[in-house]
Design brief:
mainly alpha, three-stranded antiparallel beta sheet, globular
Length: 237
């Protein structure tokens, strides 16, 4: 049996915004599985994918503007890295969890049974769609009022712990100082359900393990392995 979504008024309360056009919010929450299921019953429902596209641009604009004005000392390259870290899937998933977004998703029966309400990729996409819905309903100022507290906290954390750093590039630059050195990243383990995989990766220099990392994607695990490896060269934080 489906876990029916909660009334949308509850979500409006959590985000601190009441929609003038409720259909925008409903569309932002409508997964393609739900839209297809409704169409098979003769109802015309549009999924959130186009709104996600718009929301991604709104998210980038608001975050870029925040960084531009609040960090005038930061060069372009670093701005891009911090922005990417601030609006990555993991960050958006965490934002979505704070407002319990999964409880309000409109999913098809199969997607619901398969854990769609907790799938990071879906929740991150819907969070972007919600931003688009707010923008279409009231404009950028309301988006900023809702979004910036999350972005501000996230960016401060990124800058504080240095998580915007590209550890793989830093490690590669060090390794290349010696000719003939071979640096590889090897996935040595995967665990967890299909929608929440955890990857274990080893950084190997000439087949010797110099760092280990774990993450929700191979890329994240490789970055963590490189970060650990950098400590061997006196570069790790």
């Amino acid at each position: 049996m489906n876990n029916l979504p909660l009334p949308l008024s509850g979500l409006e309360e959590k985000i601190g915004y009441t929609f003038k056009n409720k259909n925008l919010l409903k569309r932002a929450l409508s997964h393609s599985s739900y839209a297809n299921e409704m169409r098979s019953k003769g109802f015309e429902v549009i999924d959130y994918e186009r709104m996600e596209y718009l929301g991604d641009s709104v998210l980038s604009l608001v975050t870029s503007e925040y960084l531009f004005y609040n960090h005038p000392e930061m060069p372009e390259g670093e701005l891009s890295k911090v922005r990417a870290a601030a609006v990555c899937e993991k960050a958006l998933y965490e934002f979505a969890q704070t407002i319990e977004l999964g409880k309000y998703l409109l999913l098809g029966h199969g997607e619901d049974l398969n854990g769609g309400r907790t799938r990071p990729s879906i929740l991150a996409d819907v969070f972007e769609a919600i931003l688009a819905a707010i923008h279409l309903d009231s404009g950028i100022p309301e988006v900023k009022r809702f979004l910036l507290p999350y972005i501000d906290k996230r960016i401060k954390q990124i800058i504080e712990d240095g998580s915007s750093k590209d550890y793989k590039t830093l490690l590669q630059q060090i390794v290349q100082q010696e000719q003939g050195e071979i640096l590889q990243y090897v996935t040595v383990g995967e665990s967890g359900p299909s929608h929440q995989r955890i990857f274990d990766v080893e950084a190997r220099l000439n087949s010797n393990v110099i760092g280990k990392g774990r993450g929700s994607s191979k890329r994240e695990a490789e970055q963590m392995a490189a970060k650990e490896a950098l400590t061997l060269f006196g570069e790790g934080k």
